[in-house]
């Protein structure tokens, strides 16, 4: 009797451990990684006051975070990358929602830590997010459409890079480098003297926006904040669709098939000669 009870207790322990490793730990990894990302990148904007140096900080931070937490959660730390992997059928919707809230809360905590760590006069560099010093000039000179496009274009490049490199087993080992360098290049080439740098990550805008809401001039903070969500989301949608229709391997690719008819045999009969590689790059059976 005691042996059976011990077996039941041991079985419960294994179940609890698997739930923690498959459900809880990935969410905690996204939460902690988001704290580190937002706090390091925003602190870098304050300490360096240089867009080129901060672009390097941003890219290398993502590299070591992906290497550190990638096997636990996937290493997203970005709501729009989470959206991209959901559209690519890698993440389930419930898992993506949990990641989203973990990232949002982590971004707020990271920005709050930065605000608590520096004197008030230094915070203009992160008032509206990652390295966005020229916030007021941007409202007067550049249109909201221009800002959204400046966020959508580099986000498209980033998300497409992430999807192609991480979901192909042959390229996966290089994905941290590819993602980090794409962030550095996009951050540096998307810089504008009137609006600062692009973020490609709404956390780097939303976290500081919440953390600095108590300032006297914080009302202007939210007037065009939505563009930092719409722009990256549009870029992510385009990148995800392009990946699913063109670059995806195996079952993740959406293929447009011609309808079967009596005069022409169906593709499923094995008469179609084009062979499509699976998600691991191996050539398999005939697939339309």
How would you characterize the overall build of this protein?
This protein has 288 residues and is mainly alpha-helical. It folds into two domains: 19-254, Glycerol uptake facilitator protein (Up-down Bundle), CATH 1.20.1080.10; 262-288, no CATH class. Helices cover 62% and strands 2% of the residues. It contains nine helices and two strands, in the order H-H-H-H-H-H-H-H-H-E-E. It has helices spanning 2-48, 51-73, 79-87, 93-117, 135-141, 144-166, 175-189, 203-211, 227-247; strands at 275-277, 283-286. The chain has a two-stranded antiparallel ribbon. Strand 1 and strand 2 form a beta hairpin. The longest helix has 47 residues, at 2-48. The protein is globular and about 65 Å long. It starts with a helix and ends with a strand.
Secondary-structure blueprint of this entry?
Elements: H1 2-48, H2 51-73, H3 79-87, H4 93-117, H5 135-141, H6 144-166, H7 175-189, H8 203-211, H9 227-247, E1 275-277, E2 283-286
Antiparallel strand pairs: 1-2
Protein name: Aquaporin 8
Keywords: Membrane, Transmembrane, Transmembrane helix, Transport
Membrane topology: Multi-pass membrane protein
């Amino acid at each position: 009797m005691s042996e059976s009870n011990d077996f039941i207790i041991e079985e419960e322990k294994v179940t609890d451990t698997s739930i923690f490793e498959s459900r809880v730990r990935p969410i905690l990894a996204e939460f902690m990684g988001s704290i580190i990302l937002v706090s390091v990148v925003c602190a870098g904007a304050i300490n360096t006051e240089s867009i080129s140096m901060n672009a390097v900080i941003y890219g290398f931070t993502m590299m070591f975070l992906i290497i550190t937490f990638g096997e636990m959660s996937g290493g997203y730390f970005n709501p729009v990358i989470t959206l991209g992997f959901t559209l690519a059928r890698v993440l389930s919707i419930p898992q993506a929602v949990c990641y989203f809230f973990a990232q949002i809360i982590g971004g707020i905590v990271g920005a709050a830590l930065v605000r608590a760590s520096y004197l008030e006069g230094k915070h203009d560099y992160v008032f509206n997010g990652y390295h966005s010093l020229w916030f007021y000039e941007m409202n007067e000179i550049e249109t909201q459409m221009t800002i959204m496009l400046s966020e959508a274009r580099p986000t498209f490049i980033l998300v497409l890079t992430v999807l192609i490199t991480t979901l192909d087993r042959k390229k996966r080992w290089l994905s941290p480098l590819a993602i980090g360098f794409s962030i550095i290049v996009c951050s540096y080439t998307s810089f504008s003297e009137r609006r600062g740098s692009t973020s490609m990550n709404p956390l780097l805008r939303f976290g500081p926006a919440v953390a600095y809401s108590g300032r006297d001039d914080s009302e202007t903070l939210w007037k065009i904040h939505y563009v930092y969500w719409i722009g990256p989301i549009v870029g992510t949608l385009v990148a995800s669709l392009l990946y699913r229709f063109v670059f995806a391997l195996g079952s993740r690719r959406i293929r447009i098939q011609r309808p079967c008819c009596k005069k022409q045999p169906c593709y499923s009969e094995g008469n179609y000669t084009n062979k499509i590689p699976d998600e691991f790059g191996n050539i398999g059976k005939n697939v339309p």
